[in-house]
Amino acid sequence: MVDESGEPIRIESVPPALSGLVSVSAHIMTAGSGIYNPSPGMDVVRHDPNDSPYIYNIYHYTVMEHFPSASIYPQVLKVAQIEANPELDEFIQKHVFVVGPYREDNHWVEEIPEHIKNAKQKRSVT
Which of the residues 20, 30, 36, 67 could staple to 6 if both were Cys, CB 3.0 to 4.6 A apart? Predict the structure, then answer.
């Protein structure tokens, strides 16, 4: 999701699974970080004048690639009452999981944080 500089990027369009979040109010921007970041994720910023003076709401999502190698994977299987098997691991390995939203300590803000505001536009992959 990011280039070698490791800088956050502005995502051109919100993934369909998150469209409900941005439809409830004005969507300002979405910024993400990826493989060059030790904890990849993305933030969705929406404008909500009802929260004045904190008119920007930030929702954070964790992005999980290679989920079978995550430390919580065995616990997730246990809670789901599913046993690991090669087919499941292969299926999960082929997908990226977006988990959230989380309200971090910067959920309600008066201004968009610099790391989001100054995110670079996503480059097209050809």
Answer: 36
